[in-house]
Write a structure and sequence with these properties.
Length: 202
């Protein structure tokens, strides 16, 4: 279990999260829902250790290998789709096999585009490439910030199916503001960030 206790975070006097408490079950996918600007990305960045809280604690993450899809794709524009996928595996022993790579490309409808430069891909293809890159890295916990942004209905379903298949038994924390994604991914396990979190508490 990952436990968030009495977390408070503000930026330049604006309180984003105030005395916020939550738990995330390990081995399950949790969707984090909440209105735009409510603090979902801030919570994710605190969980990832990219931001420090003003006060409060986060327990249960020590020793877990993270993988991430940020809200932006963060791909290397001047490199090919395939090189972007292989880059994280260059400097360390990796269990990634050619067949796993090809299965992933096929499942996400990216096959045939391996040698295109990122700047030649559509926005949806970039998004799926960013997700595939994160899924091909060995991880214990996966952080996803709007991973299906810009995908059409059928492509989104395929992508969610692949995500579910690849993360069985793993801890996944997925930010979305789309209730239909929550229904499809795991309607039993939702964290709502309430609107009263966001406001001037000073
Ligand atoms: N680095 C920062 N400096 C100043 N303010 C910030 C910073 N990061 C976030 N904020 C502010 O914190 C609030 C919450 O932002 P956050 O990105 O966490 O919301 P969100 O729920 O993820 O929004 P969205 O769904 O639109 O992505 C916003 O008012 C935002 O402007």
């Amino acid at each position: 279990m990952i436990t968030v206790k009495n977390l408070t975070k503000s930026y330049q006097g604006q309180v984003v999260l105030h005395d916020f408490n939550a738990t995330f079950q390990t081995g399950l996918l949790t969707c984090v829902l909440g209105a735009s600007g409510i603090g979902k990305t801030t919570l994710l960045r605190l969980l990832m250790g990219l931001e420090s809280p003003d006060s409060g604690t986060i327990l249960g993450l020590d020793g877990l290998r993270p993988s991430v899809v940020f809200q932006e794709d963060r791909l290397c524009q001047g490199l090919t789709l395939e090189t972007n996928l292989l880059l994280p595996h260059i400097h360390k022993p990796s269990p990634l096999t050619l067949s796993t790579l090809q299965q992933g490309l096929q499942a996400l409808d990216l096959s045939g585009n391996e040698h295109k430069l990122v700047q030649q891909l559509s926005g949806g293809m970039m998004r799926r490439t960013a997700l595939l890159r994160a899924l091909l890295i060995p991880f214990d916990i996966l952080f996803l910030d709007e991973p299906f942004k810009g995908l059409d209905g059928e492509t989104k379903i395929k992508t969610m199916d692949y995500l579910k298949a690849q993360t069985q038994g793993k801890t996944v924390i997925c930010i979305t503001h789309d209730p239909s994604e929550v229904s499809y991914l795991n309607p039993q396990n939702i964290l709502h960030i309430p609107s009263q979190q966001n406001g001037d508490f000073s």
